[in-house]
Design brief:
It is found in: Nucleus. This is TFIIF beta subunit HTH domain-containing protein. Its main location: nucleus. Belongs to the TFIIF beta subunit family. There is one protein chain. The chain is an alpha+beta fold and 259 residues long. Helix content is 24%, strand content 21%. It is built from 5 helices and 9 strands, in the order ββαβββββααααββ. The strands form 2 sheets. Strands 1, 2, 3, 4, 5, 6 and 7 form a 7-stranded mixed sheet that branches. A two-stranded antiparallel sheet has the order 8-9.
């Protein structure tokens, strides 16, 4: 293999029986914590757990006569259970385990004889871990985003720029889009700015319904009523019934021309 540019594989331990253990995250963290806390110059391979293998010699034909239990050494692992039942399985695809050293050497460490699933014996501690994990997953993470344009001018279309009705046309009440259900979501503009917007709207169309103006300006309805009462008259009768139009003294304000 070296002559062909490949990496040599050490197979000296290829037939050694090994166990494959499917370890839950909590148990894995506890084992790693115990290993890191036990490493010393006199103990290069610290003991982090022990396995108790029990065989019922009087019922060897019974599959349940052979039992495995794992006991982890005491450590600061929080609520992680220390006692587990190992459910063994031999019905799996033949597998081998491999390792790679820091120098890049590859070795076969053995052939898998047992495959285990870990079942915690102390369900109270384990259920507490599961509950804590569920509660953490339900907490929504808030993200803060800095907006350069803090006055909000670029956050929405300017009022009066979309959906304006051409000058001289009659108000079609059936096509009026309903105003927002809650004025609490609308932010009041400066009164002077609102007057300029309203004058431009009345320059394009002499008569406006209140709902139309709320939709066009995106302002609170009560705020609009206060301004309209100052500059407009309300048509109670006639062809423009139910609409507002500018008072005579405001019709030529800002260049408005209704001729």
């Amino acid at each position: 293999m070296e002559d062909d540019g490949g990496i040599p594989l050490d197979t000296a331990r290829a037939e050694r029986p090994v166990w494959l253990l499917k370890c839950p995250p909590a148990a894995s963290r506890a084992l790693q914590s115990a290993a890191s806390g036990s490493v010393s110059s006199t103990s290069p391979n610290p003991v982090v757990a022990k396995i108790v293998h029990t065989i019922d010699l009087f019922n060897l034909d019974d599959p349940s006569s052979e039992q495995f239990n794992l006991e982890m050494v005491p450590n600061d692992s929080g609520n992680a259970p220390r006692s587990y039942k190992l459910n063994a399985s031999k019905d799996f695809v033949p597998m081998s385990t491999f390792s790679e050293s820091n120098q890049g050497k590859l070795s076969v460490e053995g052939k898998v004889k047992y495959k285990f699933d870990m079942e915690p014996q102390n369900f109270r501690d384990y259920s507490k871990i599961c509950r804590e994990r569920t509660n953490k997953s339900m907490i929504k993470t808030r993200k803060v985003q800095v907006i350069d344009n803090d006055h909000g001018g670029l956050m929405r279309p300017m009022p009066g720029m979309v959906g304006l009705v051409s000058s001289g046309s009659k108000v079609d009440k059936k096509k009026v889009t309903p105003s927002k259900g809650s004025d609490a979501k609308r932010t009041r503009r400066d009164k002077g700015e609102m007057l300029n917007i309203l004058f431009k709207l009345f320059e394009r169309q002499p008569n406006w319904a209140l709902k139309q103006l709320v939709q066009e300006t995106d302002q609170p309805e009560q705020f609009l009523k206060e301004i309209l009462n100052e500059i407009c008259v309300y048509n109670k009768r006639g062809p423009n019934q139910g609409t507002h139009e500018l008072k005579a003294e405001y019709k030529n304000f800002g260049g408005t021309n209704n001729e």
